[in-house]
Fold this sequence. Notes:
Blueprint: E1 14-15, E2 17-21, H1 24-40, E3 45-49, H2 53-61, E4 69-72, H3 73-76, H4 83-92, E5 99-103, H5 112-128, E6 134-141, H6 147-156, E7 159-162, E8 165-168, H7 175-181, E9 194-199, H8 203-214, H9 221-241, E10 245-252, E11 258-264, H10 284-295, E12 298-304, E13 307-314
Parallel strand pairs: 1-6, 2-6, 2-7, 3-4, 3-5, 5-6
Antiparallel strand pairs: 7-8, 9-10, 10-11, 11-13, 12-13
Amino acid sequence: MTGAFALPPETGEFQHPALFYRALDAYVRETAGFVRDALKVEEPVLVAVPQPRLDALRQALGTDAAAVSFADMTELGRNPGRVLSALGSFADRHPGRPARIVGESIWPGRPPAETVEAVRHEALVNTAFRGRRATVLCPYDIEALPPAVIADARRTHPALIEDGRARTSSAYTDPAAVCAGLDLPLPEPAAAEVRLAYAGGQLRQVRERADAWVRGTALAPHRRGDFVIAVNEAAANSLAHGGGSGTLRLWRTGSGTAVAEIRDGGRLTDLLAGRHCPPLASSRGGRGLWMIHQLCDLVELRTDTAGLTLRLHMRTQDA
């Protein structure tokens, strides 16, 4: 495999192929070839894939690995909503040079709720990188992943690579349409432990209620602080952009994960909001949502006729 793929003309200089693989040796062979092609022309490379594939690829590259940036996607992409910011930052650190990225955001065993948000991420990669000189290669274990995940990969990637051959994906779908199709209702919790309606002037009450509740969870002290910050930012967005009021619910899952849900009458007009770090001069809402993605282990966002639902998950260390 080489780094040159035949893509639809509307993709411009950006390439975003899905690599379908069936065995670790094929995975390593194809991704290592992609990395070495980049190194030959002195292009910066980031490899963000889960362990143990990260170690297998590093070993296959040998001394070439020293010129590559590596990241464990199970950490970098624990919350899929923060991956795009990391990929964009890597490309931004090399202005004037085409970045090459191996990004495996969906792997066998990833929980369904995280997988949905990872599919959303894959769709939005096409929007965020449109017109940029970059290639993001996304491996998919075609034998171990569910058929629905592979079908989504065909919809979120303009090109597909399988058995060493590249072709245009006939199923590729506009990112906005993919994201709209993912806005399915979130499952109701068995029982919400806290329900608080709030409006302008009551942000302090939201913080105090969240802080009092999270002290009774198994979260580490510093993570409790992160949780309160995330809830505060979400509620502040409700007051500023969601009609001036909202509803907060708090509960724990069976694994001990702390969950906060904020509902309001807002609308998300920018699908990339929160997925890149806005300038300091930007609106509070954009920076607040970015902070939420950085702090939480999973962020689920849904838009329907009633407004906006933001569900924030923060796991205990063992969850």
